[in-house]
Every structure is written in structure tokens, then in C-alpha cells.
Amino acid sequence: MNAVNPRRRAPTRAAAGSFTSQFAIQCARNIFAAVERHMPEAPALATWLLENAASFGLPENAVPDDDWSQRRRRGVTAADWKKLGAALAKAVSSELNASKTAADMWIAAIGTRLTLDALETHILVLALQYRLDQRVERLWDMISSCRGRPGRFMRDAELVSLLLAAPRADVASRLAGPAKLLASGVLHLGSQADISPLERLVWMIRRDTLPAPDIYDQLLGSFTAQPLGWAAFSHLGREADVAADVLRAAIAGREAGVNILLYGPPGTGKTSFAATLAARIGARLRPVAEADSDDDEPSRDQRLAGLRLAQRLAEPGTTVLLFDEAEDLFVGRRAGFDEPQPTSRVFIHRLLERVAVPVIWTANDIGVLGPAVLRRMTMCLELRVPNLATRTVLWRQMGEAHGVSLHEADAARLARLVPAAPAVAATALRATRLAGGGAETARLIVEGVARAVEGGGLPVPERELNGHYDPALVNADADLAALEAELVRTGAPRAISVLVAGPPGAGKSAWVRHLAGRMGLPLLQKRASDLLDPYVGGTEHKIAGAFAEARDTGAFLVFDEADSLLLERADAVRSWEISGVNEMLTWMESSPLPFACTTNLAERLDRASLRRFLIKLRFDWLSEAQARLAFRRFFALPAPADLDTLRMLTPADFALVQRRIALRTHAPSPEVLVQLLADECAGRVGGRGPLGFATAAAK
């Protein structure tokens, strides 16, 4: 609070770009006209003018010179009061021909966009002047002090009406919550009834920046992310098309209360999809207050004010708003602390219901939003990293768009190495183009990004999905060709479940990929390590998400290492292992699309899970005839007789030895090859035989 100071002070002045002195003088004249010379405000007004005379161009003898601080109770003499009025009149006349400032132009621009009336405009000017002009700030504080009130700009209709010479009731109505000034966010009402103007607007005026024809970007920021092709988000399935239809209709019909929520872990492309979605319907995407006036992180109040102002400034019928990181609005933080700040849920609910311009919200953690907020969302879309097949196609397409040549094998390798959203690939390829590189440069760049995201380590690369399937080298306990013919025939049910058990490398995953291809379905492959989560509810959430992703994309879902997901519950040692199995069993019964589980350890599966598989298959070690055939196909040599002594071989063993001998300069003899295969068999136990469950269902 500013106290009444001694008789003379150093001249004060307005900030650069601020209003002329005329407003401050006019406020003083309004006070002069409204108060009597014997009232406490009279000496305060005389003191204020004495302190600021020089800044108004008044000579020293034009203002009554006395120690007004000592005469507060006695008031001002009639002669001095008359002299004070004359000085104020002279100060006003000296400013009549002043040129317009940046502040004047901003007020005109905002008044036009918000259709403010004259009184609303004057209140906004007063709020800005309090921040920008020390003379107005001191005048308000001194008069407020005379009336026993705090020295800060507040929702004080009586004091505002005094300075603006306006009816108190009219001022009170303009400062009501639903009225334009507060509802638009151009003024913010604090918890202590203090009022502050939009910080970005104050910053623009301080910098003497003139308003552009479209002031939205200047006050609320501009969007720089480039949209991708619609095909980049084909993994989202039909939901993406529905979201586009909803937004298109909402814009065309000026529908209120339309909110689209995009949620998912960081790095899944939520912001990129928002840009692509807006481009899809031909709308302009505009952000909402993503930085404060210093380009730092904005507060919750600043983001809320930005959203309210965006609703007023955005062009209806052509614009969609983007509120990135929605958690900022629903979980505020106290200044200087990391504890949640209470927020009014009812206020947020009404805000969502009344938005005039459609809003796309993004969130990493929808748990903080709460069910009531989620129910008010028009649509909620979960953003996921595309599956491997889709990522491979995206790398090729984006490579062409950025002028970076990627062969099919290069694209597949990049897609496997770093499971990431389309925007990550687009950024990496842009950098590759700038560096003049190719596939290897793109790999270095995208691995660097992925390593940073993972905190120094790389994510586990996905397995190659296009491994060769050779039916002649699969030793199954069922006629796979006949089974495939039944599953791919016209009218065959799609809600099938398959268990494929057998030793590692026997061709289980390769056959499932082959089956998905024959059924015309994309493959969605999940490892146990992708889904297991020690946090409460984490595994269940990821399992449900995998089935939901398969449903949304129409994919054939495959769980590798299924024994970790369907562990016998009697052997579980942690509660989340049991709840994870329960979740799997629930989804296995209700999945409308085919899914398969592969395992090396069928004996560890929960007994209840076995009853839920329609088809159970056992892939065993290669027979003697198959082993000899594999020897010829992999090494182009006849199989030696001692190969028959190796009873636990798989196609993967031959493939591994083939890669190993490629490192040698001379081709090894058949006997050396047999020894290498024997090394692969060393330590293995087991043999050909039944799994312990019936195989009739597979026949």
C-alpha cells in the first residue's frame, strides 16, 4: 500500500507505449468534482497533483504548495481548492492534442473485437493504467487509503465510479462475473477481489507493440506444428473419422459445448493429431495460452483467462481451439509449492458445456480430470503408438515427403528400432534432409531422440514381423493347412482364440503372422514386457488397452510370452499378478476379433485359461525328415547321417547357424555344421510328446 508521502517527490511517468496523461488527469478531475474540499480525499488529491505536477507540464506555482499530509482532517482552504481546480483544467488542456499511443490502439482493437461499450472500455483502461502508469496507481491507492481500503486495484464499484464519474450500479454490472470484461478473460478477478488485466496485453503495451489486424496470435500465441497426412493416423481406426465428422458438423452448425479429448502417454502424437484433425476438416487450429508474457510456463489462472479470451477472439465457423496439457486447468499449483490448489469443479463443468468454439483437449493423465469432466467431453480418443506394420508404411511415406530415400528394409528397420509416434518420424526425417543424409542418418537421429526420452536407454526394438514361414519346417500336432482353410473361408467366425505352444524357435509366431495375413488382418503384437506393470491397476489397464487397440484397428492380436500374462494364479506371489490374469480371462471371453497366445511354457498357464482357447496347437522339435530338409534349404548341402542324432532342433537353430557361418571366409564342412547345430541343442531337455491338454480341438 502506498502511504501519503512528503510534499515533493521525483516526477513519475507512464510506461513506454502507455496512455497519454489525459486519462490520469481526467480521473483526478472526476474526483475533484465529486468530493468536497473538507473531505479526506481533498488533501490526498492536492498531494497527488503536487507530486506529479512536473510530469503534467505544470509550473510549480500552479499547484497549491502545502504540507497536505498534515491537513487531512482539516481539508483544503477554499482558495487552494480553487487553485487546484484551475491546475487540473490546465493540465487537461495541455494534453488535448496528444497523439495516440500503442495502449490507445490496443484498447480500440480489443473494444472492437469484444464489442465493449464506453463504460466497459473505460474500466479496462483504468485497470491497465493502474499497471502501466504510476500516477494512476498512486491516485487510486491514495483515495482507497482515505476510505480505509487496501492499496491495490480491486472490484470496488464505488471507487471505480468515483474515478470514472459513472453511476455505481452501472460499474457494478460491468464488473459482474458473467459480464464481458471478466467473462472474456481480458480482466481477471483474484481470490482477494483484486482485478488484473491480461498479462500478455500489459506486456505488449510495455513493449510499444502495435496491434495486428488479427490480435489472437499476439495475445494467445500461434500454432507452429505442421499437420501430417491423414494416413499417418490410420492406426486410430474409425474413431479418427468420427472425430473429424463431429468437428466438421459442430463448426458448420455453430454448435456449443463441443469438446474432443485426446489422451495417452507422452510422445504418442496427440498435438500432431490435433493439427492433422483440424487440417482434415479445413479449420484453423489455434492454441490457448501456452506461454506467459515472458514465454515461461503460464499459471492456471493465465491459461483459464486465455481460454475465455480465445472463445471471444476466435473466428466462429472456421476455428478449432487447442488446449494442450489439460491437466494445467484441472490441477492448479500453489505459487512456490508443489501441492494441488483447489479448483471449482462446477465452474469448469459449466465452461465445458458453454464453449462457443470447439476445443480439442490433450492430456497425458486423464485420472486428474475426473469422471464428471470426462462425461462432458463430446468424444474421448486414446492416442497410441502405431503398430509395426503401420510405422513401416509411415516411414516410407514420410521419407518421400521429406525427400529422403528409404527402401522397404530401411523403413522396417527404423520402425522396429524405435516404436514412436508419427511426429517423431517426421521430425527425424526433416533433420535427415537438412543433414543431407539417408537411412543411417535417420537412424542416428531418431535413436538419439528415443534415448533422451527413455532417460539414456533405448526402448527394446520390436521383433521383425516379416520372418519367413515355411510350412514344411513346422512340426505341428494338427493339419495347419486344413485349419487355415477353415478360418479364412467366407462366413467363418472372427471371434477365435488360439494357443500355440512349443519350444523357442519352432515357428509359432511366424505361423500366427502367416495366419493373420491369410485372414487379411493387420497384426498387433504385444510382448509380456509391454504389458506387465507393478503399479496398482497398471497391468489391467494395458491389457484392456491392447484389446481395445485391436478392436479399433481391426487387428489380429498376438500375445508373446503368454505364460507371464496367464500365470497359474495358485503360483502367484503378488496381488497384481492375480488381477492381471483375471483381466486377461475377462477379455479373452469377450474379444470380437481373433487373438493368439504363444508360449514356451504351457505347463505354467492358468488352468482356467486353457478352457478359453478354441484352438490349441503344439509346435514340436523338427522331425528327422524335417531336419534333413532344413539342412538342405539353409546350407544347400545334403544332410550327413549324424544329423539324425540331434533330436531337439528348430528352424531358428538353422537360421542362427546360417548367420554365424556368414562371418567366415570359408564355407564349413557338413560335419562342422552338424557340430554347430549340436552346440545349439546343448543343455536342452524334453522331447516330442503331448502337452498335457487335448489337441482334438485343433483338428
Short description:
This protein is an alpha/beta fold and 699 residues long.
Using brief descriptors, characterize the structure shown:
30 helices, disordered C terminus, 6-stranded mixed β-sheet, disordered N terminus, 699 residues, 9% strand, 5-stranded parallel β-sheet, alpha/beta
Helical segment count: 30
Strands, total number? 15
Question: What would the average pLDDT be, to the nearest integer?
Answer: 84
SS class: alpha/beta
- Overall geometry comes to elongated
Q: Strand order, biggest sheet?
A: 10-15-11-14-13-12
Radius of gyration: 37 Å
Sheet with the most strands?
6 strands, mixed
- End-to-end Cα distance: 89 Å
Can you describe this structure?
It is a single chain. Helix 18 (388-401) crosses helix 19, helix 20 crosses helix 21 (439-453) and helix 28 packs parallel to helix 29. The protein has 699 residues and is α/β, with parallel strands linked by helices. Residues 1-11, 333-342 and 687-699 have low confidence and may be disordered. It starts with 21 loop residues before the first helix and ends in an 18-residue tail after the last helix. It has 30 helices and 15 strands. The longest helix has 17 residues, at 78-94. Helix content is 46%, strand content 9%. The strands form 4 sheets. Strands 10-15-11-14-13-12 form a 6-stranded mixed β-sheet, with helices on both faces. Strands 4-5-8-3-9 form a 5-stranded parallel β-sheet, with helices on both faces.
